[in-house]
Amino acid sequence: VLALTGRVGNIFPFTGAYIPLFKRFYLGGTNTIRGFREDEILPADDTAWPASSRLPLEAKDIALVDSRQSLGGNFLLNARTELRMGLLGDLELGTFVDFGQLDEDVRTFAPTGFAAGAGFGLRYNTPVGPFAIDFGWKVLDGARQLPPLGFALARAFWGRGPVRILALAAALTIVEWLRGHVLSGFPWNSYGYALT
């Protein structure tokens, strides 16, 4: 199965209007570009570290800025491709390539500013939706120097807010089903669940 997903967005602010951080676009993580940490990718037109520069303009060593936090952008382009192959029953192997670009201003969009991640993972199709574990690597972030080993473990199906609560409910349903059907001979004295 070949799965394709794409998103494009642009915020059109009024002249001089402030856009709150929680309304801006972000790239990186499970739902955008796997291989990067959540919201890790800086805008390609970032003034301190543009995608056209190998190192930050104010620093000479990538180790000094490895923890730099993105403040998001006003323009987003994101595409995700995934090839899934059946292994055994509802278990599938997936390989993926995700890419995208984040910009402060859509007019600065350039093909050289793309970020990309690639990797593989396992998917298990449950009655309430797929459960996935992905292993991704940073492949490209414009001309920016990437750390020697950029790796991220992503758990698809877990998100923020209501999505996280629905995912927890789905996980509890699966655990209860396993407890009642598969592990019925196991001595369950006590168990608990935590939303972390």
Descriptive key words:
mainly beta; 1 helix; six-stranded antiparallel β-sheet; 196 residues
Outline the structure in words:
- It is a single chain.
- Strands 1-2-3-4-5-6 form a 6-stranded antiparallel sheet, with no helix packed on it.
- The two termini are 33 Å apart.
- The longest helix has 22 residues.
- It is mainly beta and 196 residues long.
- Strand 4 and strand 5 form a beta hairpin.
- It is built from 1 helix and 6 strands.
- The C terminus is likely disordered.
How would you concisely characterize the structure shown here?
The protein has 196 residues and is mainly β. 11% of the residues lie in helices and 34% in strands.
Q: What is the residue-averaged pLDDT?
A: 78
State the total count of DSSP E strands. 6
Taking pLDDT < 50 over at least 5 consecutive residues as the criterion, the unreliable ranges are 186-196
Order of helices and strands: EEEEEEH
- The oligomeric state of the chains shown is single chain
Strand order of the largest sheet: 1-2-3-4-5-6
Report the β-strand fraction as a percent range.
25-35%
What's the total helix number? 1
Termini separation comes to 33 Å
Helix percent band = 10-25%
Main pleated-sheet profile: 6 strands, antiparallel
Rounded Rg = 20 Å
Quickly give the structural class.
Answer: mainly beta
Outline: elongated
